[in-house]
Amino acid sequence: MFKFIVRRLLLLIPILLGLSFLLFIWVRALPGGPATALLGERATPERVAQVNAAYGFDKPVLEQYVKYLGRILRFEFGQSITLRKDVTDELLRRFPATVELAAAAMVFAVGLGIPLGFAAAKRERSWVDSTAIVASLAGVSIPVFFLAQILKWIFALKLNWFPTIGRLQPTRELEHVTNFNLIDSVIALDWGAWVDTVKHLILPGIALGTIPLAIVARITRASVLEVLNEDYVRTARAKGMSRRIVDRRHVLRNALLPIVTVVGLQTGLLLSGAVLTETVFAWGGIGQLLSGAVLDKDYPVIQGGVMFLAVVFVLVNLIVDVLYAVIDPRIRVR
Amino acid sequence: MATVQEHLQSLMGNRVVETAGSSLTRETWRRLRANRIAMVGGAVIVFFVLVAIFAPWLAPYDPRVNTWFDQIRPSSVPGPSREHWFGLDESGRDLLSRIIYGARTSLVIGIVSLAIGASIGAIFGVLAGAFGGWADSLVMRVTDVLLSVPSLLLALSVAAVIGQSQTAVMIAVAVPNIPLFARLLRSSMMAEREKDYVGAAVSVGIKRRPLVMSHILPNSLGPMIVQGTLALATAVIDAAALSFLGLGSADPGVPEWGRMLANAQRYLNVAPHLCLIPGFVIFITVLGFNLFGESLREALDPKLRR
């Protein structure tokens, strides 16, 4: 097991090296070069020359790349042009918001997706099944930024059940220890803030969770269908076990492997892909930071943000693979 | 990671499909015709393409003209009426005309980005699948890197570097497609290489180049067609997402579905039609491509035959 993890961690190195190389070239391909990227497009030639000397942009490219790698390894991405703050600090400060949102979305997706997919598989080729198939295709076809707006319009503006934007009512004071509002409100023993946080999480959680919901439902259906045809299921039935127990002990447990994997992969995507949902709900996580940075051409933030999220994505995928190997020993052999 | 993903892909039905000769094409077509979901999806696609092509004849007004600007108030934007079936937009332009021309924008972006993504991906895929060895490892590592960044994030950073324009959107939407097509073609060519007919061709002395180009490649294209249909769905949605985030054309007069939704945000309470109409149009178009693509995959896959 240890060897497996080490091997997978070593595989990360070429991926991250490659990505850092791409980002390095990217910023150098910009009109005006990296100094413009750091200073913004309206920088004076004198400032550009200053920065070029200070950062060593006038040195040979290879030397620059080595230095740049060193900075990335220490997770230094420099200052944001528009926010005038350290990029790494800003990313770390906002990350909990993104994690909280992704977690809410996954709770929604898994809580609904597994029962739906299971029901569809049990009644294969019935109307339940076809409805589930079409619904899951509809789920992946609906643009997140459209769904988010509809939810906001109906449930926040018309019915007034949920707040429209943000993570917490602005009037509420909460001491940010971890920046996870769900945890901070427990630390502060502020029950009201906790409920408020949950209320703020519901609409963005549903919006963000719809695509994973569709995918989880689909993979559950496919996986359960495959297991239902296994000999051991027939044997269990033949020896007179009740349908409920066969379903729970034999079918669902064996079908769970691919589901766990998909959930993991989707979590990785959500952590990095909440740009649209965060923008509609002014969530204040990394996604919103990035979409703003792209419009402002805030390259240090873009560079740092993409690198950070890619690392998170790759690490989550690694954890998924390790989990998979833990659950299914057959994988480790290869 | 490869093993897990391959296992998942096989579960999701993304199997490498056996294709051969015209009989299978006919068989596939017969199966598609019998599938109601496929026909619905196909109808949506045909309708969308026709609207995009004949936009100048179909649109009741010029999509750029804001003759009715005097009817727009911050607290009200006229909704659907007899003169304007979809109402006006927030700048006093006819929304129906903008939606119709927007289909043209989406179709062009979709086709161009698919062409770029699929052809570059195919080149990589053929290199890896036909030669194996170091070419294969190189392609796999490059695609590993590209796949380690989620597609919207990749598109976003590409668009950020190129700047605000429709060309940027096309390239940004195309880049995440490259590794997908490369991997797909590679794996289906690998599977094809093991077939008996390839062994037979080698034994009668056919050279590598014609073997790859006129035997293995044509037989490996089935999954590419399926992926192409599904990639068009993604292209429409991703292009809309980018223009929603403000990265579309720099000219606000250009009708883009995503930008319409972005502008609608401020009027969500007073004029929900500004959000609902373009949103549903994107949804239906993407759904059409997805329904057709999934049915095509099913029809091409003998294992899933009903």
Question: Could you give the topology of this structure?
Answer:
The complex is a heterodimer of chains A (334) and B (306).
Chain A (H helix, E strand, L loop, with lengths): L1 H27 L4 H7 L5 H11 L5 H13 L13 H36 L4 H15 L2 H15 L22 H7 L3 H38 L2 H8 L4 H31 L1 H6 L5 H11 L2 H29 L2 H4 L1
Chain B lengths: L1 H10 L9 H14 L1 H18 L1 H4 L36 H37 L1 H15 L3 H12 L3 H9 L2 H17 L2 H8 L4 H12 L2 H23 L12 H8 L8 H28 L6
Helix pairs in contact in B: 2-14, 3-5, 3-14, 5-6, 5-8, 5-9, 5-12, 6-9, 7-8, 8-12, 9-12, 12-13, 12-14, 13-14
What do you see in this structure?
The complex is a heterodimer of chains A (334) and B (306). With 334 residues, chain A is mainly alpha-helical. Chain A has helices spanning 2-28, 33-39, 45-55, 61-73, 87-122, 127-141, 144-158, 181-187, 191-228, 231-238, 243-273, 275-280, 286-296, 299-327, 330-333. In chain A, helix 7 (144-158) crosses helix 9 (191-228) and helix 11 (243-273) packs antiparallel against helix 14. The model of chain A has no long low-confidence stretch (mean pLDDT 80). With 306 residues, chain B is mainly α. Chain B has a domain at 99-306: MetI-like fold. Chain B has helices spanning 2-11, 21-34, 36-53, 55-58, 95-131, 133-147, 151-162, 166-174, 177-193, 196-203, 208-219, 222-244, 257-264, 273-300. The chains are: A mainly alpha (334), B mainly alpha (306).
The helix/strand class of chain A is: mainly alpha
Oligomer: heterodimer
General form of chain B: elongated
Global mean pLDDT of chain B: 80
From the 3D coordinates, which CATH architecture of the domain at 99-306 in chain B would you assign? Orthogonal Bundle
What is the N-to-C succession of helices and strands of chain B? HHHHHHHHHHHHHH
